[in-house]
Specification:
single chain
């Protein structure tokens, strides 16, 4: 497995959409949004034998360019549960550190125990806020934040 920044191309957009459809029943991305994220953010891919198996999408904060927001992480079903997603997120975060990002934020469903385990217990994210009706009535979210200054990866999370 290798993680690298994905460059914009017709094939890369199609691959991202394919992975997302495999990973989720409700999709966030489209042929319109993926190129935008690739041009104005960072999209990292998890590759196995040069085949995309997962991706992360980050955008910089408007208020503080040292903060990145994790828009989405998706891993194909056949690579879920075997450490592929954790590896993808870890390597993506390490790349962001090299680009001068000092913290990463994200939102997550408070009922998503699997995601909370990865973000908080494995990676060290902390709950910064509870956002009631963040994405509409009845769609609450935790707002999580990870300080990347001094972060050395999941093996250093207490």
């Amino acid at each position: 497995m290798i993680v690298r920044c994905i460059e914009k191309s017709r094939d890369s957009v199609a691959s991202i959409l394919r992975v997302e459809r495999d990973a989720f029943t409700e999709t966030l991305q489209s042929r319109w949004s993926v190129p935008y994220h690739m041009r104005h953010g960072r999209v990292y891919g998890l590759f196995v034998d040069e085949v995309l198996k997962g991706f992360t999408i980050f955008l910089r904060s408007w208020d503080d360019p040292c903060i990145a927001y994790l828009v989405q992480i998706a891993v194909q079903k056949d690579y879920q549960g075997n450490g592929g997603g954790t590896f993808l997120l870890q390597e993506s975060l390490m790349s962001l550190i090299k680009e001068g990002i000092t913290s990463v934020t994200l939102t997550v469903d408070p009922r998503n125990a699997r995601a909370l385990h990865i973000y908080m217990e494995k990676m060290g994210f902390q709950i910064a806020d509870y956002r009631h009706d963040e994405y509409g009535e009845g769609t609450d979210r935790y707002y999580l934040k990870l300080d990347l200054r001094g972060w050395g990866g999941p093996e250093n999370v207490p």
